[in-house]
Design a protein that fits this description.
Blueprint: E1 7-10, E2 17-25, H1 29-36, E3 37-39, E4 50-57, E5 63-72, E6 83-90, H2 92-105, E7 108-109, H3 114-121, H4 127-138, H5 142-152, H6 155-178, H7 187-209, H8 211-219, E8 221-227, H9 233-241, E9 259-265, E10 268-274, H10 284-297, E11 302-308, H11 315-323, E12 329-334, E13 350-353, H12 362-374, H13 389-410, H14 415-433, H15 439-446
Parallel strand pairs: 1-7, 8-10, 8-11, 11-12, 12-13
Antiparallel strand pairs: 1-2, 2-6, 3-4, 4-5, 5-6, 9-10
Bound molecules: guanosine-5'-triphosphate (GTP) and magnesium ion.
Guanosine-5'-triphosphate binds next to α9.
Length: 453
């Protein structure tokens, strides 16, 4: 990715739309605009960040499209390079013609994520912010959007930057004493290093403990509906979705295959999976359904194990319960609108009573699911949440180095060793911000972006 080249790519999705935006970034941006754009009103010099109406013409001067164009002078742009955006009609053919024109002119088609890569290289965003840009584009729920936006705006970066600054001060303090091996570190410096390391470790613990919630908000959670045949799994799926999606009959064994639907529960994107009723059966089709249900069980973030509240607990219920062993489970007693059968506690799990027919208890169940998936981190709260495994791993490693620093300090290790612990901790933080990230990793991250971002 050569930064001296001028790159071009459609910034909007392929398809038919009112308009499409083609973005150009790099030193030849303004020249590219001037060469083929004929403004409707006379323009002597293009002013930065102003929209101009006119016609885009091809090499032969033929009209290509009626467009709006904007020139944005560096450095107040997304990439911090000169940028031009062309707003043309949103058809694939028009976009293709515009791209063709500029590729022949000598611009290069941008690689996936290259605009954001330039923003990163030019210091407009750090790596964690750049990653959040991708999250913002792909987010599946409103809370995921808010989370990604707060990361783009630098909430996480600011906190990590603060750690980095604190550690750099410690580094200076320690390195000042390296040349005096016979001298003892003054006790106030020693206390200061201890206190700073302890404080950062506590904050890192707080961040790493948010990772589960952050991941769930970003990627969504898989919730499985399980239970013996006829307990009302498909009815609950329909009730949660608010539409008659799954077939419901009073014949046990109606659902044979897995049925997966996406929805949002309390701000969390969820994949709800309806399954075949769990029981021992001789029917080969049903047996395959049961096998698939069991296989899916182990991948679920939460299993809703349904028990028919209007019937006594049966052997198949125990069979279903045993299949859920080791998974996080809520017991859901169904058909609360019918006379209740005698209730005996069959497990250690939390229980909820619902009726898919009347809607009773559905809201309470949704709230409990949200609380289970997010813990203390409710959407809208001001807390910083970790969403990337990469960030989580780097913070765990950083904390380990700080723990070692405290140990080294405590056991009067040489200053060089203390300095090394601090350097390693800083390196880990640099992995998140991108300061110490190698090219291969950067390439891996940016190649997951779409073209035009
Ligand atoms: N009264 C009442 N009946 C319900 C309720 N939920 C489900 N049912 C009835 O119970 C029967 C079975 O419902 P399903 O949702 O198909 O049950 P299932 O667990 O998906 O069954 P399988 O797919 O066969 O495993 C149907 O006749 C439903 O109408 C409820 O809340 N109240
Ligand atoms: Mg069913």
């Amino acid at each position: 990715m050569n930064a001296s080249e001028t790159i071009i790519a459609p910034a909007t999705a392929v398809g038919e739309a009112g308009i499409a935006v083609v973005r150009i970034s790099g030193p030849r941006s303004l020249e590219a605009l001037k060469t083929f754009f004929r403004p409707t009103s006379k323009v002597n010099t293009f002013q930065s960040h102003r929209l101009y109406h006119g016609t885009l013409c091809d090499q032969q001067g033929q009209h290509l499209d009626e467009i709006l164009a904007v020139y944005m002078a560096a450095p107040q742009t997304y990439t911090r390079d000169d940028v031009v955006e062309i707003h043309c009609h949103g058809s694939q053919q028009v976009v293709k013609a515009v791209l063709q024109l500029y590729l022949e002119f000598g611009l290069r088609l941008a690689e996936p994520g290259e605009f954001t890569y330039r923003a990163f290289v030019n210091g407009r965003l750090d790596l964690s912010q750049a990653e959040a840009v991708s999250q913002l584009i792909h987010c599946k729920s409103d809370s995921a959007r808010k989370l990604a936006l707060s990361q783009v705006e630098g909430q996480l970066s600011r906190q990590l930057y603060q750690f980095t600054e604190q550690l750099r001060q410690i580094q200076i303090l320690i390195e000042a004493w390296i040349d005096f091996p016979e001298e003892e570190l003054p006790s106030e410096d020693r206390n200061h290093i201890f206190a700073t390391a302890a404080d950062i470790m506590t904050q890192i613990d707080h961040l790493t403990s948010s990772y589960h919630s952050g991941r769930v908000l970003k990627e969504g959670a898989a919730i499985l509906l399980a239970g013996r045949p006829n307990v009302g799994k498909s009815s609950l799926l329909n009730a949660l979705l608010g539409e008659e999606r799954a077939i419901v009959t009073d014949i046990p064994g109606t659902t044979r295959d897995l049925l997966e639907e996406g929805l949002t529960i309390g701000g969390v994107p969820v994949r709800l999976v309806d399954t075949a009723g769990l029981r021992k059966t001789s029917d080969p089709v049903e047996r395959e359904g049961v096998r698939r249900a069991q296989q899916k069980l182990s991948q679920a973030d939460l299993v809703l194990l349904l028990i028919d509240g209007s019937k006594p607990v049966a052997e198949d219920d125990h069979y279903a319960l045993a299949a859920c062993e080791g998974q996080p489970v809520f017991i859901v007693r169904t058909k609360a609108d019918l006379p209740t059968a005698e209730k005996n506690n069959i497990s250690k799990y939390d229980e909820y009573n619902i009726s898919s027919k009347t809607g009773e208890g559905i809201e309470q169940l949704k709230n409990a699911i949200q609380e289970f998936l997010l813990g203390d981190y409710l959407p809208g709260a001001e807390s910083v949440l970790l969403t990337e495994k990469r960030h989580f791993d780097s913070l765990v490693a950083c904390r380990r180095n700080l723990g070692h620093l405290c140990y080294s300090l405590d056991s009067d290790q040489p200053m060089e060793l203390l300095a090394m612990d601090v350097r390693d901790a800083l390196y880990c933080l640099g992995q998140i911000s991108g300061e110490t990230t190698n090219d291969q990793l950067l390439e891996g991250i940016f190649s997951q972006f779409c073209i035009g971002k």
